[in-house]
């Protein structure tokens, strides 16, 4: 083949790859433009990271970084799948009246379902009227404009415990949560996520500090799935819970499962080696790997590399860090 023919062939190959890449990116964009605005959370996150939590934006990979056409197509496919999986539905299935000393209130049982999934992905929590009221007040402080058209069921002087009022509030709270979740800025806010997860996490960490590892583990495993779905754009935020699960399994003498959760936690921290959990997690994983007869040299190398780069500082153990969570 002469030089001109060779150059022509190279140019045609380059144009073909460029066309494929452009088509891959354009097809995804066209599909997402047809979706409701509230549902396009993942793509909008990459385009406008400054409008959201700065921790979230750094968690995304750069789709233009030396990816082949096939890798780019796979990247967008995964992004679309994550957007679809991120949708949650809220149902209030039942209520119960609680009488405690001199107080009396209604607990609303909230079932949180992931769309396009089976019941195994559901989460169940309970909240009372005052919990919803506190959430509404907190959100108004930060999102007053977004909350202008959001109505909240008012208290009544009498009849709060009648079947009619309770059923009305069940429907009202269901619509309220659905509306809040439809607004990206609110569903990604710490105040909204705390409303759905903080009471259970506080209870779980309290059990952990009291040495009730079985009960703590049960709660952590229940809440971690919901946490992951709520914070899909910020995978690092679930690291403390993953590490608490590791501590529980380790103290319950189940090193194999502890190691599995440790791998999940390390995967989320591979770009965040300055995170307070990184070194305690590495040290725990080295210990677990040694106990299980696994290769721990790569983990040891990461630990030594970190020590060479950082000044010696006091490092808590993984368990010491876990028991300090949710103390206040």
Features:
single chain, 328 residues, mainly alpha, three-stranded antiparallel β-sheet, 14 helices, 3 strands, elongated, disordered N terminus
Report on the structure:
- There is one protein chain.
- The chain is mainly alpha-helical and 328 residues long.
- It is built from 14 helices and three strands.
- It has helices at 3-33, 41-47, 54-57, 69-85, 129-142, 163-182, 184-187, 190-209, 213-230, 239-251, 255-269, 278-292, 297-309, 318-323; strands spanning 88-100, 103-114, 123-128.
- It has a three-stranded antiparallel beta sheet.
- Helix 1 packs parallel to helix 4, helix 10 runs antiparallel to helix 11 and helix 12 runs antiparallel to helix 13.
Write the layout of secondary structure elements.
Layout: H1 3-33, H2 41-47, H3 54-57, H4 69-85, E1 88-100, E2 103-114, E3 123-128, H5 129-142, H6 163-182, H7 184-187, H8 190-209, H9 213-230, H10 239-251, H11 255-269, H12 278-292, H13 297-309, H14 318-323
Antiparallel strand pairs: 1-2, 2-3
């Amino acid at each position: 083949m002469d030089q001109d023919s060779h150059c022509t062939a190279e140019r045609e190959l380059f144009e073909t790859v460029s066309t494929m890449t452009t088509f891959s990116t354009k097809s995804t964009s066209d599909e997402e433009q047809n979706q409701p605005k509230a549902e396009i959370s993942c793509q909008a996150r990459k385009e406008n990271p400054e409008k959201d939590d700065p921790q979230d934006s750094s968690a995304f990979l750069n789709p233009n970084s030396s990816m082949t056409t096939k890798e780019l197509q796979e990247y967008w496919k995964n992004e679309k799948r994550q957007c679809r999986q991120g949708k949650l539905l809220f149902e209030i299935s039942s209520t119960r009246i609680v009488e405690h000393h001199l107080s009396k209130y209604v607990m609303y049982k909230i079932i949180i379902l992931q769309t396009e999934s089976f019941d195994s992905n559901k989460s169940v929590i309970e909240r009372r009227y005052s919990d919803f009221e506190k959430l509404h007040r907190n959100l108004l402080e930060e999102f007053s404009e977004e909350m202008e058209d959001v109505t909240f069921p008012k208290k009544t002087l009498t009849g709060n415990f009648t079947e009619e009022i309770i059923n009305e509030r069940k429907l009202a709270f269901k619509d309220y949560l659905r509306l809040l979740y439809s607004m990206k800025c609110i569903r990604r806010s710490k105040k909204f996520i705390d409303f759905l997860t903080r009471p259970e996490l506080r209870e779980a960490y309290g059990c952990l500090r009291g040495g009730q590892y079985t009960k703590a583990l049960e709660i952590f495993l229940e809440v971690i799935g919901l946490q992951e779905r709520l914070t899909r754009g910020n995978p690092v935020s679930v690291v403390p819970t993953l590490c608490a699960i590791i501590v529980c399994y380790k103290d319950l003498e189940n090193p194999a499962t502890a190691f599995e959760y440790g791998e999940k936690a390390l995967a989320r921290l591979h770009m965040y080696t300055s995170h307070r959990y990184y070194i305690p997690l590495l040290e725990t994983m080295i210990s677990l790997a040694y106990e299980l007869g696994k290769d721990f040299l790569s983990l040891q190398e990461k630990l030594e590399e970190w020590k060479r780069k950082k000044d010696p500082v006091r490092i808590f153990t993984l368990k010491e860090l876990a028991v300090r969570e949710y103390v206040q």
